[in-house]
Structure formats: C-alpha cells, structure tokens
Amino acid sequence: MSAAEAGPRWAIVVHGGAGVIERQQLTAEQERAYRDAMRKVTEHGAKLLSAGKPALDVIEATIGLMEDDPLFNAGRGAVFTAQGRNELDAAIMDGETLKAGAVAGVTRTRHPISLARRVMSASPHVMLMSTGADEFSRQQGLEQVEPGYFYTQRRWDALIKYLEANKLPVPAKPTGIQSEDPAKGLAHDEGKQGTVGVVVLDSSGNVAAGTSTGGTTGKRWGRVGDSPIIGAGTYASNRSCAVSATGTGEYFIRLSVAHEICSLVRYRGMSLQAAADEVIQKQLTQLKGDGGIIAVAPDGQMAWSFNTSGMYRARAAEGQPVTVGIFKDES
Ligand code: ASP
C-alpha cells in the first residue's frame, strides 16, 4: 500500500485453529456451525472496533467468546492431558507498550485470556504457570469453574483413542461434568490440536494479539506449547505487526514464529503477507512443522498463512465486510 493510500482505521483477524480440515470430512451442518461461529466473533470484534474500543478490550472480548464455545480447543471444549485434565494456556500482548501477560497450565479459570491480561496489568510478571497461576486467578476474583466445566465428549473420545494408541492408562473423568456433549455433534475433530487467536488494529493505531488453547491431546509432563510463549505463538508491536499462531507448538517455539514474522516486516521491510508466507510456507514447512498464523499491521494490512489442509479463519476491517474461510482453496 502506498503512503498516499490510507489503510482502514481498524482491522481484525481471527483464527479458530489449523489442522486436518478437509471439505469431504465436514458435514454441511458442521461447516455451517464453524462458519457461523467465526462470523459471530469477527462481527462482534468489528462492532467494538468501529465504536472506538481499544485493541486489548477487543482481544479479551472476542477470545472470551471463543473460550465459551465448545467447538474450539480453548476454555470449554479444550483437549485433555494424558491425566484427563484440561490445562489451559493463554497470552495477550499490547503492541503500543510491548506489555504482555501469559499463563500456562491453568485448570479452573473460565477465561484464561482474562487471566493473561491480569498478569500483564496487575502483576509485575509476564508469565505465570500451573497452581500459582490458578491462585493468582482466584486472588484477582476471576470466574472459577469446576474441572468438568471444560468437558466435551468428543475431546474425551479423542483422548481415549490417543491413550490406547500409545498404550497409556485411561484416567478417571473430571469431576463436575456439566454436559456430556455441549457441541451437539457439530464439532469436527481437526487432529490432536486446535487453538483460538485474534489480532486487531484499533482506531487509535495500536495493534494487539491474543491466543488461548488447551494445547495438544494427551500432553504429558507439564508440556506447554507456543501459544503462551511471547514471540512464539503470540507477539505484537506497533513497529511491525501483531501475530497469533496455531499448530504444533514445538516448531513454533523453535522458530520464534510470531516474532520472526514481525522482524521480517520491521527490518526487511517485507509486506505482512510475504513475511507470513516466508515463515510458514518456507521455514516452518522445511522444519516439517504444521500450522498457521494470522497477522495485522498498524497500516491496516491483514494476512494469514497456513500449511495444513485447513484453518478456521475470518477477517474484517473498516469498509471491508467479514470474510470467513476454512479450506485451503478459499481466498
Ligand atoms: N499451538 C498449540 C499448542 O501447541 C496447539 C494448536 O494450535 O493447535 O499448544
């Protein structure tokens, strides 16, 4: 975009996870459920942004909606660890100040993204983990839920399949299960992962990024992926761009994917799409990693790039209606 051509004043890009998502695998009903969910979240974000809401508020509100939606691997609907628990990771970053907050392995907070934001705003730290993060969440008065709140039958079934294939013992179900199948058969199993993420440019010219996930099915030993690692799965700077990732986190950590994309924009002057493709289509693919990213820049450029068969994604900007995509062959 030339300097004379002003970009949109605000923009939002959303993802709901990447993985094996092929047209023939999704029923018409499932496809509609995901498209509707992605549209609803993006429209909500667009409404907030057009009303002048700050980037961080929009990240928290939109990711909060997805954490409540059992279709996605974040909050309710998260995948299980090998011990039959939901250990949730989330991160948020403010591109204006470079402040960031992240949590790993939290088990009781309904909205991990809100907890990540509190780590950023109400603690001197960037990242809290496990029982300490759960305790901080209670102290902050964030909504706490029973472990069974996060339960969905299809994620439990996926765990059993994983444990049997890996000859691991099957644990007891979590306590306090509210509903066996809140997604009512609409959810699609996109592999052993998934994640949600949002990046926005607000009308004050600030970018921000947020990511929330249950991680990967059957994870063990306190495994943490890229989502809450600042620079890997989540990064934002007004000097370059904001990025949220999804995919097999180990590769994203090794490549510092989110920060690498921002560095290519900042130091090599690449367009956002070219930088995203360089890291996902070349670097990640060469390493045999799988997944994708969404990104937005302070001048209103938006991008997504993934090397899986699908990624739930949507975007909107001032003067540009919501576009939703799932499969590779969609623009
Ligand atoms: N990146 C997440 C993780 O590795 C999972 C995903 O996005 O699918 O924890």
Give me a quick take on this structure.
This protein is an alpha+beta fold and 331 residues long. It has helices spanning 28-50, 55-68, 112-122, 130-139, 153-165, 249-255, 257-268, 272-286, and strands at 11-19, 88-94, 100-106, 127-129, 196-201, 207-213, 234-236, 242-247, 291-296, 302-306, 310-317, 320-327. Strand 9 (291-296) and strand 10 form a beta hairpin.
Distinctive features:
Ntn_hydrolases_N; single chain; Isoaspartyl peptidase/L-asparaginase; Glutamine Phosphoribosylpyrophosphate, subunit 1, domain 1; globular; binds aspartic acid; eight-stranded mixed sheet; four-stranded antiparallel sheet; Peptidase_T2; 331 residues; alpha+beta
List the helices and strands and how they pair.
Blueprint: E1 11-19, H1 28-50, H2 55-68, E2 88-94, E3 100-106, H3 112-122, E4 127-129, H4 130-139, H5 153-165, E5 196-201, E6 207-213, E7 234-236, E8 242-247, H6 249-255, H7 257-268, H8 272-286, E9 291-296, E10 302-306, E11 310-317, E12 320-327
Parallel strand pairs: 3-4
Antiparallel strand pairs: 1-5, 1-11, 2-3, 2-6, 5-6, 7-8, 8-9, 9-10, 11-12
Helix pairs in contact: 1-2, 2-3, 7-8
This protein binds aspartic acid (ASP).
